[in-house]
Design a protein that fits this description.
341 residues; 14% strand; 6-stranded parallel sheet; homodimer; 13 helices; 12 strands; 4-stranded parallel sheet; DNA-binding
DNA sequence: TTCCCGAATGTAAGCGCTTACATCTGATTC
DNA sequence: GAATCAGATGTAAGCGCTTACATTCGGGAA
């Protein structure tokens, strides 16, 4: 592999520039401390040799890796891709690199991946949602790894988080739905078991209906995995299991798009025969036919600010603070009044 | 921060289990070598102490980080998100972690990010497209870092790659388009300057037209940045700059979706008044109205196989091999015959 | 001129782990 | 019962870098 010319080390550079390794190290890390002439000589040697510092050695000696980890359900969900892209950009500007692990929505994997990321040298972490073993947070605290929860915000939770209140946002949308006169609501949700975000959204609907004096059985809830096809299948199921349904509130836009497609395939007009809503406001939401009424979430801002906080925590030791971001309802064509008759 | 109980080290575990550090290390890395009784005792100590290995030390001593890097234009493009997600999954199964950098399509950033990734300890790399300084490949070779190009395949290039032939795939689609009788083609492409994939696609169209005996000026080419809105704007521009156009071939589906939207806004029926095609076959392509005729690319397979090759290269020293993946045309409604009259 | 001080540089001690090699144990063989 | 051997474990030498501390040197103050 690394045949004749072995990878150069700091010592090689030092020898070539006629200085000590300490000076080379200083040139690289705090150039201000080094006399200009020396510095140019050293940098030349670095270039000549094609030197690049050894990561492990640097991490070991400096006790930090300049790496931040994130555990994400999946990048295939545009919602995460968007937020994480912004997160990564901001991190890059601060000289940090992103380490990614994905859990494929399997909760038992999540905790393990957090540990893996820490073992892989993550200086700080971003976690999606609160849902994890308390011992995990202990572990992170003990190791001094700042961890910020994102995509969720719940004032009853103590861990610092940046996100929005899933429950309140969905409740707001549900209120709007009820104003349109709907009384029989179906909800197609992602599995709520291991997912505080999905759960919060369902609670929001429940609460809005409750406040409006509608009985619990007027909400028909079904849980399916993430996907367009599963959303489509769920719509068919809902309409046969709860035929009185006049509006289907979906836990996210992808499910809603699936539902929309199924409705079209079944010959139902949206919103004349059936209303459908989403959550997230992905690009697709606006492009769908009819365009989807949904909850807009500031994913990019969330990613950017999450990075900012983590970088500050790492560099200045600033403690993490919870931030609640505002969401807003995007009223488009997929929601309409209750069909007459 | 890491207050009273300092982070435990291998030595702490060894002491508690009453063995040497070597034994603990072996328990962790090759458990088979250790007597079962000893192993349970050690593992118990590991758990009691909440020990997790120090990454830097491990990397330094073992000379590898089990980390693979990728430089990606952006995760917000579903095409990359999909492939990278599959890549990451496969890597995870092999015990490797993914390090991500994104270039935001800025070529000058790319090379620097490759170096950063290497300095951050990436054992191997995945690069999108061939387009980079030759010295970069030298650098990687000298450091013994296997690097695989993805999303492209070009037999005239020597570097190992896994991907598809952008030129040939687009040429195939263009042939189909010409069969429909179109003679005045417009192409909305991503910037071809720093992007061999975009360039290949344009060449494919050129070549098909050439073979069909159509003059070069019958192709109107415009280049715009990635995005739905830019695609929409480009369509308006194309139709005013080249009014004879009867088909718009877009360099990717996102641009095509934008074009579709603009056409709708302009009151044009697709495909009756104007045909539009895409490339990539993202989810959106099938859901659009009308559904998009496009080139289907096996992104997930590409990601999975890229991971496989890199892992093999790392663990068995298997040399990287170029793989050409097949694409196929998905004929849907957005392409139709030339409008009469 | 002598002394002191700060800037520039050098010296060397780890950082926590892996691993080649050495040692020890008990079973197996003759 | 001695010799042999394999399996289990211990010893200790680094891996390449950062950084506290030591040293050197030149110039300004006294």
């Amino acid at each position: 592999m690394s045949s004749i010319p072995p990878v150069p080390t700091l010592a090689d550079v030092a020898r070539r520039a006629g200085v000590s390794t300490a000076t080379v190290s200083r040139c690289l890390n705090s150039p201000g401390q080094v006399n200009e002439g020396t510095r140019t000589r050293v940098m030349q040697a670095v270039r000549d040799l094609g030197y690049a510092p050894n990561f492990g050695a640097r991490a070991l000696a400096a006790k930090q890796t300049n790496t931040v980890g994130v555990v994400i359900p999946t990048m295939e969900n545009a919602v995460f891709a968007r937020g994480i892209q912004a997160f990564q950009n901001a991190l890059g500007h601060a000289g940090k690199t992103l380490l990614i692990a994905s859990s494929a929505y399997q909760p038992e994997l999540e905790d393990e991946q957090v540990r893996t990321l820490v073992a892989r040298g993550a200086d700080a972490l971003l976690l999606i949602g609160y849902e994890r073993e308390p011992s995990l947070f202990d572990f992170l605290a003990r190791r001094g790894v700042p961890a910020l929860v994102a995509w969720s915000f719940d004032e009853t939770q103590s861990h610092p988080a940046i996100g929005f209140d899933n429950r309140a946002s969905m409740e707001e949308l549900a209120r709007l739905v009820l104003q349109y006169g709907h009384t029989h609501v179906a909800c197609i949700s992602a599995p709520t078991g291991p997912n505080d975000r999905a759960r919060g959204r369902v609670q929001g609907i429940r609460h809005a209906m409750d406040s409006a004096g509608l009985p619990a059985q007027n909400l028909y809830l079904t849980e399916v995995d993430y996907g367009i096809d599963t959303g489509a299948a769920a719509l068919r199921h809902v309409l046969s299991a709860a035929p009185a349904t006049t509006v289907v509130m979906c836990g996210n836009d992808v499910l809603a798009i699936g539902a929309l497609r199924a409705a079209r395939e079944m010959g139902l007009r949206v919103p004349e025969d059936l209303s459908i809503t989403g959550f997230d406001d992905i690009d697709l939401a606006m492009l769908a036919e009819p365009a989807l009424t949904t909850v807009h979430v500031p994913h990019r801002e969330m990613g950017r600010r999450a990075a900012g906080q983590l970088v500050q925590a790492l560099e200045q030791g600033t403690p993490l603070k919870s931030v609640r971001l505002a969401t807003d309802i995007r009223v488009r064509q997929s929601l309409g009044p209750v069909p007459k008759g």
